[in-house]
Amino acid sequence: RDIAMDTFIEITTYHQPGDTAAEEILKDFKYLESIFNRYDENSVVYNFNKHAFEKPISIPSIFENLLTESLKLSDYTEGHFNPAIGPLVDVWRKVIKGEDISNLPDINIVKEAISISKTENIIINERKGQVSFAIPGVSLDFGAVVKGFAVDRAFEILKNKGIERAVINAGGTIGVYGSPPGRKYWRIGIQHPRKEGIIGVLNLTSTMVISTSGDYERYKIIDGKRYHHLLNPFTGYPTEELLSVTIINKNGFLSDAVSTAVMSMGLEKGIEFLTQKSLMAIIITPDLKIHFTGDAESLFQPEL
């Protein structure tokens, strides 16, 4: 157990003594953080964001890979997952962290941030392996997907080490690998969005990633209204219609991006999108009703 990516990372492997997979996975989480933490002045993405308007910048292949896949997922989610959302995140960060709760951001500042937070402002020269920004102020933010990306990489490490079963808990992203030891199911709790404890349990039999986005993770109540860190890239404001979205998929990168995107889409559009893409989801609305897509309902056991 260790801290990386702003959360506790807990890895349980069922293996022979002396195996180093858990240490290797933790090391990889920290390596990814050193590249993609946009608030760390020593990170690759921080320095990229700072200088990419001035000149095209050569980026490591892992960065190019994550960026390219993120842009594909942005198209896939019709822009509701947006890796260029950094300027909007910065507008809201002080409010959400409680550093400035006297004023909400000025509407004109929000509108300006929306106009800058566009993926079309990212210019990729694949031949040269370089990326630049078309206008000043653009800023990449991979916070929504880096944990899912890390869990996918962790699965590769487990496979290469010949480990048959493991659990990786990275806060809102949980990966179960292989079949559960000595029982029928991996039992993964789904956080109740309005009180301590869980609202239900997922019973899973094999490798899967469970990504949850919720308005209860980082938020501030101002004048009786909840302002949280999950932003709608089109309105520029925190999402309002859903309390939480859980995506169940074999691909952590996808499940992370989609859980964020569906929070932004809202219930009707979200369910339509998930059904069209044949994705499993659990959506909780403000009346605490639980909505399902795909086979999610058959895997879910409500907490009585």
From TrEMBL:
Coiled-coil stretches noted in the UniProt entry, renumbered to this chain: none
One Pfam family per UniProt: ApbE
Gene Ontology MF annotations: metal ion binding; transferase activity
Signal peptide: none
Keyword RNA-binding: no
Cofactor note: Magnesium. Can also use manganese.
InterPro entries from the UniProt entry: ApbE (IPR024932), ApbE-like_sf (IPR003374)
Keywords annotated in UniProt: FAD, Flavoprotein, Magnesium, Metal-binding, Transferase
Enzyme Commission no: 2.7.1.180
Binding site for Mg(2+): 144, 256, 260
Cofactor: Mg(2+); Mn(2+)
Catalytic activity entry: L-threonyl-[protein] + FAD = FMN-L-threonyl-[protein] + AMP + H(+)
Protein name as it appears in the record: FAD:protein FMN transferase
Species name: Candidatus Hakubella thermalkaliphila
